[in-house]
Design a protein that fits this description.
elongated; alpha/beta; binds magnesium ion; Spore Coat Polysaccharide Biosynthesis Protein SpsA, Chain A; seven-stranded mixed beta sheet
Length: about 425
């Protein structure tokens, strides 16, 4: 099925394979024989950091982890709370190359357009690097994260320098390494069929098949945890990046408030609820269009910023509001919140009435409220109930509405 993607192009399905099948023997020691991809790092597992990065990227639709047989309990612990975009894990093989091939084969039913292959021991992968690689894959069959070589290279022999190697044009390959899925699967299958099992990364297999692979400059911070004593450095780096992330989050608070409104039925042939005209045996009496749910919601929104009620802002004695569209009142409350730097988190409305039936109009009403407030429709709750024949609504003398609103407001200095 084709549909529009984020940038208006054809929707492209991108998968990520995270290779976590190593036994991590070089990183053992320090009292831990847990493979390095499952060791704790700044309060999470190394693998979990990788998965969080891919899960948070809007262009990655599915994530597959390749694990060592028997590591299931470690895997389950590392992915707890993250399952939403994870495919069931698959077992790796004797080599990294075989593990990647197992992962690629496991994606055959999904058949993604692009696949990014990443080593679980690189927990500092950023969303920007993932984006940069995906952007290059629009033009080149392969694209890998890499850093230009900065150290001078020496070839040694018997502890002495035998040669200084010109580093011009040399890069250090990292992961993720991204490819068009068909290409890299075919390349891996061809390598397996040819009995070639000594490729050091996926780009090398692509190169062997003659595919062009682009170098995408990534931060040197995207390094690979290799030895046990790398963990102290990794811990400090991860805590530093947390601190920077927290510093970017605006400080603020959530506030909730409620509203309630009633209008009496009178002669007429329709009512207006949440901005939607609904045919009925009666109308609703009021100075404006008597849209009780929008009035209740306006009061709830005003309540979150202590801004009084609807009557304070739009006095019923003022003739200019006669027959007015109540959407005007709601937009006013929305604008007052926006002026405070606030954001509407969600709203929820309950209508109490024996008649008219609300259900056939519910989606249109939610859509109209979402449109008026400039929020996604999943942030708008709406339901209706009768009062079992009791009270003024039960006697069909009028209609009532309750509303709640939650907003997020940034802290103001000194308040
Ligand atoms: Mg009212």
């Amino acid at each position: 099925m084709k549909r529009e993607g984020l940038r208006g192009a054809r929707y492209v399905k991108n998968a990520a394979i995270v290779v976590a099948a190593g036994s991590g023997t070089r990183a053992a020691g320090h009292g831990a024989d847990t493979p390095k991809q499952y060791r704790p790092l700044a309060g999470r597992r190394v693998l979990t950091h990788c998965l969080e990065a891919f899960s948070a990227h809007p262009a990655i639709s599915d994530i597959l982890v390749v694990i060592r047989p028997g590591d299931e309990p470690l895997y389950e612990e590392a992915v707890r709370g993250l399952q939403a975009r994870l495919l069931p894990p698959v077992h790796g093989g004797a080599t990294r190359q075989q593990s990647v091939l197992n992962g690629l084969r496991a994606l055959s039913a999904l058949h993604p357009d692009m696949v990014l292959i990443h080593d679980a021991a690189r927990p500092f992968i950023t969303l920007a690097t993932i984006s940069d690689i995906l952007a290059r894959l629009d033009h080149v069959p392969g694209a890998i994260a890499a850093t230009p070589l900065s150290d001078t290279l020496k070839r040694g022999a018997d502890g002495l320098i035998a040669q200084t190697i010109d580093r011009t044009g040399l890069w250090c390959a990292q992961t993720p390494q991204g490819f068009r899925y068909c290409d890299i699967l075919a390349a891996h299958e061809a390598a397996a069929a040819a009995g070639k099992s000594d490729f050091s990364d996926d780009a090398a297999i692509a190169e062997w098949r003659g595919l062009a692979v682009a170098l995408v400059e990534a931060p040197a911070a995207n390094w690979k945890i290799t030895r046990g004593d790398d963990f102290a450095r990794a811990e400090a780096q991860m805590r530093q990046s947390y601190a920077e992330e927290i510093a970017r989050v605006p400080m603020g608070e959530s506030r909730a408030a409620t509203g309630f409104d009633v209008h009496a039925f009178e002669a007429g042939d329709h009512v207006t609820l949440c901005g939607v005209k609904i045919p009925h045996t009666h109308g609703l009496r009021g100075h404006s269009d008597a849209d009780a749910p929008l009035h209740a919601l306006t009061d709830a929104l005003l309540g979150t910023i202590g801004a009084g009620d609807i009557g304070d802002h739009f006095p019923p004695s003022d003739p200019q509001w006669k027959g007015a569209d109540s959407g005007i009142f709601l937009k006013h409350a929305r604008d007052l919140i926006a002026r405070r730097g606030g954001r509407i988190v969600n709203v929820d409305i309950t209508i109490l009435a024996e008649r008219p039936k609300i259900a056939p109009y519910r989606d249109a009403m939610r859509a109209r409220v979402a449109e008026l407030l400039g929020i996604n429709v999943d942030r708008v709750g709406l339901k209706a109930t009768t009062t079992e024949g009791l009270g003024f609504t039960g006697r069909r003398e009028g209609l009532a509405s309750l509303a709640t609103a939650t907003v997020f407001l940034p802290f103001e200095p000194g308040v």
